[in-house]
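Table S2 (continued). Query chain:
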Amino acid sequence: MATPAPSAVLELLKPITWFAPMWAFACGVVSSGQSPNGQWLMIGAGVLLAGPLVCATSQAVNDWYDRHVDAINEPNRPIPSGRMPGRWGFYLAAAWTLLSLAVAAALGPWVLGAAIFGLVLAWLYSAPPVRLKQNGWWGNAAVGLCYEGLPWFTGAAVMAAAVPDRRVLVIALLYAIGAHGIMTLNDFKSIEGDRVLGLRSIPVQMGSAYAARFACLVMALPQTLVVSLLAIWGRTWHAGIVAALLAGQLALMAYFLQRPRERAAWYNGTGTTLYVIGMLVAAFALRPLVQGGV
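Corresponding output:
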């Protein structure tokens, strides 16, 4: 039986997509309030779990169930091009799922629970009959949660070996909600194809202008709450930095909203960068609060 080349396997797992959950995992580690001394092996395993395992699994699952669509729109991808022959795409998705569960189990019950939840969403996102990706409201929510909220929770849970502090959970959830807007921006590049294929992305449902405003609002409101909460918790310097990063995003949003379809990719490379920097700032703000049990 023909087997795929290692380069095709790597392309299927899409390393470029691993950054977001790995960054969120790092934010969870920082926000936990725990010293990393003596836990570097656990941290390394958690980073591996967040990116090259769980996130990569979601990419493999997505490409397997989208293989017929990709044969029309992106025939050079590993599966439709034949570089990933037979059912190898499915076998790799299943194997990576099991490997992810094994690593998560070694990191503790809370991490295992988070991994199970994330992997279930990964399969539901792409696999029929559910295919959450068919509707932008549900699909973007699933991706935002899996890319930001769950990895943050996992990083904090790995360090604390318990359920993270409620403030950590709130901040992680707010950034996961904001990521819904980032996912909406990603959908601008495929509006015509989504409309033809019956995928009800947010831009397809709302139109470009309203979807762009909605995406900006969904990104900005959770960060406003983060700023307010950090200020209430006495982390005024950190609140000020996150507020400044949000102000920078708002300025970029104003430019993006003038021509959203043409500038969505540009904003994803500029405004989103400020967004994720704010995540790390918020994580450092939480650290002394959790350490001191304030």
